[in-house]
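Try this one yourself first.
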């Protein structure tokens, strides 16, 4: 039977690309990681790694084993959590990752609801955009993540439930006259734009392309408050999701709903069933999403 610590070392090397980085991630010494990898190769009678410069690269066999090892480790963590809950060894701790506007709009009411429905459940919140949140799920650093996606694709072993369809909005200076979404986008062919994160920027570019032009992106920031402040000064426009505007809408901007959305989801990693504490938090987030007031 393969040792879980050795599988954990292999997965860490696959993720980080080096023995030293894997040692840092797992808080082991490099000799310990090297020992686990040598023993794993001996036990499997397979070459799992090749040296490349100062780092290492997994062989095809190593990559295949690392992929399965992620599943095995996720199931092991799940089994431990379920046993602890059944035995009453802890009241329940859920590590939650959420992107900023979800952390501001969905998490607070979910926390309030949990204090009433599941007072023994404690939440540890980490702010993270979807790519980092998904990576944290895979690595076992969080139990649940609130993410968003602009399509319906799901990665292997990710379980995602959509809690909110979040519309996108054109954000203009308040002095701009009201127009339909299509006319408003076309009117800014020669206006400078403020763009957000890479995924949000891609959606901006696609919407402008559908209106027949490539946007001139002059500013880039992930701070939704900064985006609105820049637009309010009068010479810039942007696109923001409804959750960001639900947190705060600057009095100096006007918003127009666009024919584009993103799906806000609660995501877990690994095969079901989920621990009861994770289900309790996920359910509270679903309820909170129903009550969010988005711009019209």
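Now uncover the answer:
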């Amino acid at each position: 039977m393969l040792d879980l610590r050795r599988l954990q070392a292999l997965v860490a090397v696959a993720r980080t690309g080096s023995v030293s980085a894997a040692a840092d991630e797992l808080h082991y010494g490099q000799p310990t990681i090297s020992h686990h990898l040598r023993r794993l190769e001996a036990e499997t009678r397979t070459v799992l790694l090749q040296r490349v410069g100062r780092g290492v690269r997994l062989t095809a066999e190593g990559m295949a084993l690392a992929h399965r090892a992620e599943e095995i480790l996720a199931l092991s963590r799940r089994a431990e959590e379920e046993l602890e809950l059944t035995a009453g060894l802890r009241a329940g701790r859920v590590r939650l990752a959420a992107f900023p506007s979800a952390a501001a709009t969905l998490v607070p009411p979910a926390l309030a609801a949990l204090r009433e429905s599941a007072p023994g459940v404690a939440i540890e919140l980490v702010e993270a955009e979807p790519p980092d949140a998904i990576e944290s799920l895979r690595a076992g650093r969080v139990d649940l993540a609130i993410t968003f996606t602009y399509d319906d694709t799901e990665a292997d072993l990710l379980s995602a439930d959509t809690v909110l369809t979040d519309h996108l909005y054109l954000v203009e200076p308040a002095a701009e006259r009201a127009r339909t979404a299509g006319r408003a986008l076309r009117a800014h062919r020669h206006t400078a734009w403020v763009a957000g994160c890479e995924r949000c920027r891609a959606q901006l570019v696609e919407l402008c392309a559908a209106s027949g032009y490539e946007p001139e992106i002059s500013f880039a920031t992930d701070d939704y408050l900064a985006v609105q402040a820049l637009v309010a000064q009068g010479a810039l426009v942007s696109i923001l999701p409804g959750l960001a505007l639900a947190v705060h809408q600057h009095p100096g901007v006007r918003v127009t709903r666009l024919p584009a959305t993103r799906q806000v989801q609660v995501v877990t990693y690994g095969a079901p069933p989920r621990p009861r504490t994770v289900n309790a938090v996920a359910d509270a987030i679903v309820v909170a999403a129903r009550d969010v007031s988005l711009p019209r």
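Discussion: The two ends are 58 Å apart (CA to CA). The mean pLDDT is 88.
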